[in-house]
Amino acid sequence: MADENPFADVNPFAAPAQPSQQPNAGLDDYNPFAEQQAASRAAPVAQPPPVYQPQPTYTATPATIETTRAEPTINAPQSQYNPADAQLKARQQELEKKAADLARREQELANLQQNVEQANNFPPLPKFCCVQPCFYHDITVEIPIESQRLCRMVFYVWELYVFVLLYNLLCSLSLMLTGGGATTFGVALLWTFLNVPCSFVCWYRPVYKAFKNDSSFNYMVFFSLFFVQAVITGAYAIGIGTFGSCGWINAATELDRGNEGVAAMMFICGALWTVLCIFMVIILKRTHGIYRMSGASVQKAQGEFARGVMTNKNVQSAAAEAVRGGISAQVAQTQY
Asked: Alpha helix locations (H) across the chain?
């Protein structure tokens, strides 16, 4: 009994007996893994995992990185409305419109300058007068658009200068009629009739030509003569009788003498001379600013003067006569 093995006939890996068919089966047919095998058979068959297709690899270059980073911005949402951008765009459109209008006006001005008949129209004298206009004067036609405003200001200053000269002559006449200032009236009369045409020819006409042709030589002539004119105008505002002016000093003198009417006229004349002097200084400063921006210089003025002298017909004829005279003298000396 001691040598018998109770589990000799037991196979633990044998298939278990079906309980429904063999309800009374013994340990010989028992399978401890029968329930796990039955559960594995009853479980649904799992689908195979999807096959992953590898993507082609690319070398990461700087251009590829930049393109990859820039791609999300293609479909980025639109930025919100910015009033500053809208105002800047409107301002740009306005400037473009003004530039186009300026170009159109310059083209019209160029066409007008080519087609207009430039007959002398200044000074505006009647046709029955024995003296006819000597100059053609039209700021709208001859002067570039960017310089027309300043050129008109200079012309208005010249007109004011003529008016003050005439009013100064009237004041000096009143002074002479009240018992004094005969010398003042005589000098004022001479100064008026000389300065009205000379001021137009000597300093207004040069600045007109400078604006028209961008002439450095005419700028230089204007600056030199107009500066002297401004100094003389300041002296006239002071009122020195020997200069033929009626200014502050003469007015104060007449007021002390009790000639209040003439003194009032002279005070007004002194104020007009002072205002005119201030306007002249302003015109001189603004014209100098345009002169510097135009690129004019003393060297260009000298070149223009030399070309003007060489192209002058009178100078050419005089030079030709001098050359012929010199050749004739040399021939006569050789024959002798």
From this structure: 34-42, 62-70, 83-115, 139-142, 145-177, 182-199, 205-213, 216-238, 248-256, 260-293, 298-311, 313-335
